[in-house]
Amino acid sequence: MRIEWKGVMPAVTTKFTQDDKLDLDMFGVNINAQLEAGVNGIILGGTLGEASTLTDDEKRILVETTVDLVKGSVPVIINIAEQTTKGAIEAAHRAKKHGADGLMVLPPMRYKSTDRETVTYYSEVAKNTDLPIMVYNNPVDYGIEVTHDMFEELLKFDNIQAVKDSTRDISNITRFRSRFGSRLNVFTGVDTLGMESVVMGADGWVAGLVCAFPAETVAVYELAKAGRIQEALAIYRWFLPILELDISPQLVQNIKLAEVTTGIGTEQVRAPRLPLQGEERKRVLQILESGLKSRPQLPDYKVLI
């Protein structure tokens, strides 16, 4: 499937049972909720997907299950977060074999690579797969920035097509757009900059709280993209206290708890993560319950998709 890099693409959580197995039933419930809301793709095995805790076989199961669920309606993209170039290339080969349509690729894990090493890493992955690639640029959390000069070198590979920008610098979207035009599709990866990024010209939004609130997230994107700013803003202002749960070291636990409150997920995480407890759990639940009490009536945003 050719990927049209635009719109809302949820970085979905991985659902687990109480005995630490994949919960494919609840996973399916959530994927179907995303499709019903009108998302443009499904991204597996990202930070929210607890990628570092998944086995290769679990990743295979998630890809194959998602491909079966979406039935070609949207692309299925899997994140690659490997320590070695060889491991990343092997992961890309497995992704294609299992039916993925594209890749989201982080720089090397653990080792803080230099600019030259980072460019070489991405180049080797791109040369060894024909799957389209989104570069995941998150220097805040992962310590390596893929700069505009580095993209100048990387874009000689036709299959490097998009960037998920999580620098938290809203002006970076304008810099990408000014320098590369339509050659590079730009997504925001920060929920609390979701609407602002769309207004500034982002092609899409790799979202987190969409996992619990798919319709609201897609509505904000589609309304903002259509220039219906006041309608988008009304939803976004309601949404922002919830979206702030994404910018936390416990974002996985926060968003899984949010999925529980909206009935499309479970609270189970994989150790060493543990579910929230005590005062922090109360605080997050208070934010979610307050939001649910004032949940807005959405306009018919689907006519814009």
Quick take:
The protein is α/β, with parallel strands linked by helices and 305 residues long.
CATH C-level: Alpha Beta
Number of spatially distinct domains: 1
- Strand order in the sheet with the most strands: 1-8-7-6-5-4-3-2
Order of helices and strands: EHEHEHEHEHHEHEHEHHHH
Uncertain regions spanning at least 5 consecutive residues = none
- The counted number of beta strands is 8
Shape by Cα distribution: globular
Helix/sheet category:
alpha/beta
Radius of gyration: 18 Å
Helix content: 40-55%
Largest sheet: 8 strands, parallel
CATH topology: TIM Barrel
Residue-averaged pLDDT:
97
| Beta-strand proportion | 5-15%
Organism: Cerina litoralis
Keywords: Lyase
Binding site for pyruvate: 206
Pfam families: DHDPS
Description of the molecule:
This protein has an 8-stranded parallel sheet. The chain has 12 helices and 8 strands. It is an alpha/beta fold. The protein is globular, with a radius of gyration of 18 Å. Helix 3 (85-98) links the parallel strand 3 (76-80) and strand 4 (102-105). It has helices at 24-37, 56-70, 85-98, 115-127, 139-142, 148-154, 171-180, 194-199, 214-225, 229-243, 251-261, 278-293; strands spanning 7-10, 42-44, 76-80, 102-105, 133-137, 160-165, 185-188, 204-207. Helix 3 packs parallel to helix 4 and helix 9 packs antiparallel against helix 10 (229-243).
